[in-house]
User: What shape does this take?
Amino acid sequence: KHNSEKLSWFYESGVYSFDDSNAVFVDSVRVLNRFYHRFSVSPSIYYSRFFKTQTTLNPVSPTVTSSLAKRKRKRKEPRALNERELIAVQRHQESRPLLLAAHECLLKSTEVLNALKALKSESSCSARECEGGQRSFVNLGHVTPQLEVTLSLRLSDTDADSHPLPSDLQDFPSVQCCEQKVVRAFNNLVANDTQDDAVAEILCNRYIIPRESCFYMSDLGQIRNLIPAHADSGFNLIMVDPPWENASAHQKSRYQTLPNKYFLSLPIKQLTHTKGALVALWVTNREKLRSFVERELFPAWGVSYAATFYWLKVKENGSLICDLDLFHHRPYECLILGYSPGKVNKTDNLSQFKPVKNDRVIMSIPGDYSRKPPIADLLVEHVPGLKPPRCIDLFAREILAGWVAWGNEPLYFQDSKYFVKK
Ligand code: SAM
Assistant: This one.
């Protein structure tokens, strides 16, 4: 595609593919905003970690500074790397040229860099954000498992006569007709099967639910309730972002983590569609984890390894979020892709899909801690089965249009405080 065509496609889709390269830039906010009609994801909130001007919020006292400096000095003492760390370094050295080449594409592309600059100024204009406080769904689920959610669904105009608008629905000035459903919030498949955004209300907090999507909010113990009765209603794309254990206390305060053995029993086989599924698994850079996935997890799931994609994190000026070669804090994460076979013979499977190729580099500005960019568009052509594929997000914290989202807090980023009203 010609550059100007590519740019207008970027503005429309949020995805920019660089010529003759495996590299692609994704504006997560633009991608997500394709899912909504009456609300939009606010870039200033999504990208708040990188759009904030760097100010010293808490001036550090001189004593604290000197003890920090001592700790830093201590850390710098060289230590021989152990065997696992050496393998991690080798893995990094292998991916390094690929990541640098992708980054080079971004730095050379004035049109994408200009679009990023514009994104920052767009987001600083005074859009009124909806209000709301974050709830801990994990605690709520334990304390009040019977809690209900009120779903306000906007039906198509043809249903207008049978469903007049309730008078108290002030948030919907333009709504012609609306149906309210009250259902259980936990351990229940809650669906917005309309073509429009729906609003879910739990204890006076509002959540925006994109069109044709479902969520199932539960602990891991209930995940088997999602196994379809018939494999031909299983899933063709299974995204998994497990709460891997991580030494960082920082992460521990964000969400619960689980030991690796819990993930071995995820029912990937049973969730797979008869025509097979592409499984996309987010992993951290810890070598112990990478070898666990290759040697134990994928074999236990019956998934055959296909490719690795990289998510390279950049700031709004296009630079990497940290030095590429920092050992304990890399500016990238990996998405491991594999195929879960369906029940039909390969020769019977008439569906066409392009086998996934190794080493794609996806660049984007990160959102909140551990929030992954919405990259399903880049996977769809590699998904077996009929189109559109049936997709499920395991350990989800947000809901994508057309997807089933499962986890103990799938409504987390659907909170109305992350959206602005159009
Ligand atoms: N993909 C998400 C995103 O982009 O924001 C991030 C997922 S985060 C790595 C892992 C999620 O798993 C967290 O929301 C956490 O609360 C959830 N989780 C942890 N333990 C769980 C359990 N026992 N059952 C269900 N979900 C759990």
Summary: Residues 219-220, 241, 243, 255-256, 258, 370-372, 395-398, 407-409 surround S-adenosylmethionine (CB under 6 Å). The longest helix spans residues 83-108. The CA atoms of residues 25 and 115 lie 11 Å apart. Confidence is low (pLDDT under 50) at residues 54-65, 125-132.
